[in-house]
């Protein structure tokens, strides 16, 4: 497969990923992952130490669907929205129909009253299945720059 086509497909997948979160289409978010998959939000020092668990973890699409259900039906938190800025998106390698992709992100959190703050910064370490035209994440590790993780982290990053 041509590298430029892979880069475009990867960029579209990551763009759709942040759009699902930023546009409050969380029900569409799990569909961007294969099954099984790995989704992990972890702070930098824990990641650098090789730890495999973080503050948010899922190993299947069903676990991601459960996350969305709890956000909608069980968790109580002040309504808020995110706005992502992602880039640069770097295609590190492609092997056996899996693209290894790294990118940086910044997330602003907008509270119901309009207060906006920089909520999180970090990097995405992605493994993406490119074997079909509908690319899917097989692994998304969200490494937060800060070791301090806000207690209101409910929505995926």
Which terms summarize this structure?
single chain, 157 residues, alpha+beta, Nuclear Transport Factor 2, Chain: A, six-stranded mixed β-sheet, 6 strands, 25% helix
Low-pLDDT regions: none
Q: Which shape, going by the Cα principal axes? A: globular
Number of helices: 3
Distance between the termini: 30 Å
Task: Give the CATH level 1 class.
Answer: Alpha Beta
Say how many strands there are: 6
- Helical content class: 10-25%
Strand order of the largest sheet: 2-1-6-5-4-3
Q: Could you report the average pLDDT, rounded to the nearest whole number?
A: 94
- Structural class of the helices, strands and pairings? alpha+beta
Cα radius of gyration in angstroms: 15 Å
- CATH architectural label: Roll
């Amino acid at each position: 497969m041509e590298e430029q086509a892979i880069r475009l497909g990867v960029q579209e997948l990551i763009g759709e990923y942040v759009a699902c979160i930023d546009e409050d289409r969380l029900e569409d978010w799990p569909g961007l992952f294969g099954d099984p998959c790995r989704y992990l939000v972890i702070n930098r020092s824990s990641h650098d130490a090789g730890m495999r668990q973080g503050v948010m973890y899922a190993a299947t699409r069903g676990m991601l669907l459960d996350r969305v259900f709890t956000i909608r039906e069980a968790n109580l938190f002040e309504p808020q929205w995110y706005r992502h800025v992602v880039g640069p998106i770097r295609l590190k390698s492609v092997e056996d129909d899996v693209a290894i992709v790294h990118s940086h992100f910044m997330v602003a959190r907008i509270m119901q009253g309009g207060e906006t703050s920089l909520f999180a910064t970090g990097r995405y370490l992605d493994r993406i299945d490119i074997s079909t035209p509908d690319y899917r994440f097989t692994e998304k590790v969200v490494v937060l720059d800060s070791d301090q993780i806000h207690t209101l982290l409910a929505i995926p990053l």
